[in-house]
Design goal:
A seven-stranded parallel sheet has the order 3-2-1-6-7-8-9, with helices on both faces. A six-stranded parallel sheet has the order 12-11-10-13-14-15, with helices on both faces. It folds into two domains: about 1-220 and about 400-415, Glycogen Phosphorylase B (Rossmann fold); about 225-395, Glycogen Phosphorylase B (Rossmann fold), CATH 3.40.50.2000. α2 (about 60-70) packs across α16 (about 400-415) and α9 packs parallel to α14. The chain has helices spanning about 5-20, 60-70, 120-125, 140-150, 165-170, 175-190, 200-205, 230-235, 260-270, 285-295, 305-315, 330-335, 345-350, 365-380, 380-395, 400-415, and strands at about 45-50, 75-80, 95-100, 100-105, 110-115, 130-135, 155-160, 195, 215, 245-250, 275-280, 300, 315-320, 340-345, 360. By secondary structure, the chain is of the alpha/beta class. It is built from 16 helices and 15 strands.
Amino acid sequence: MADLAFPAATIITMISTIDRDPRGGAAHARLEIGPGPAPGSRRRVCVVSETYPPEINGVAMTLARLVDGLRGRGHAVSVVRPRQRVDRCGPPRDAEEFLVHGAPLPGYGGLQIGLPAAGALRRHWTRHRPDVVYVATEGPLGWSAVRAATRLRLPVVSGFHTNFHSYAKHYHAGWFVRVVAGYLRRFHNRTTATVVATADLRARLNALGFTNLSVLGRGVDSGLFTPERRCAALRAAWGVSEHDTVALYVGRIAPEKNLELAVEAYRAMQRVGGARRFVLVGDGPQRAALQKRHPDLVFPGALIAQQLAAHYAAADVFLFPSETETFGNVVLEAMASGLALVAYDYAAARMHVTHGETGVLIPYGQAAAFVAGAVELARSPLRLARMRRRAPASLASVAWPRVIERFEAILSDALGQRRTPS
């Protein structure tokens, strides 16, 4: 397996990076953090990731939230990441960042793959020794970070971001599933603990031989994503009135997101007179083809922060047919913005959507049922309006500070479980 580590890691990085939408859904903002730990329990944490702001994708933005949150609680947090195009040859923008070599990710402009850096990391961590290392991505940089930390006897927590079984059918790589699964299992089982996004994912990975799994959910910024950002002018620009129904998708426009099914569901909603516009926010390799085949759809591109929040709030129904999520931050953002959801019953939708109350949950992978669920909602404007009112209130307890406290506890537990991975 050692000979396969680097090529497998390269593919894993491609997969794990595109697993999250490239439009900055979890917009980077300062968190209001509660009281931090006692002075004696403040830690030096090093986060290692192939992707980090200013790159725009779900993994990067989630990590920025966690880093800001830990710092807000008094911890000293450093970040190891590849040098990005915006860095050029100068020093990092953040004094607590350690930049390593990277290379462009083929087919995904603007994203970098981190190259192996075990020697540089050992030297860096010998001079600036952290208490615990969090390796957020499973590519070449992540693999070398696990090896370097193990050599230095540092506890390592890893993050699982790759739904490899689901990607196989979209990229015609079913033959490679076992190789990827073996690589990921070996990668994560070498660490003290592995963070996963949902209890369902933990159960599936346990069955595949992954060990020491901990669940860490996600939060949502309800100050940014709110129905109050609904904009009549934006809806008018889409050619709809306040009484028309607008369907929305936010995320990467790529095969693994199953967007042909989203378009099919929208067309079915149109036929029953229940939808006037479909807006797809994001970018990706499938955008040009979809835009050419469906010129009546709205493609505003990748958006962040207030622009993104306004697009959420101006819509009514969120169509999310992806079968490849480890979580799906966009589910929380859509609900907080007052949208009713149509989504498969797994990951974030299973955790947070109440069927018939805040959305429509569809049995996983049943495309015909997905279309039928969207049509049923389109035919029931009063039911749709009730769901939209209930969705934001259902997320009252889903806040980033709670997620950060949980993450802090996972890192602290790892410090008490120092072990030498096999």
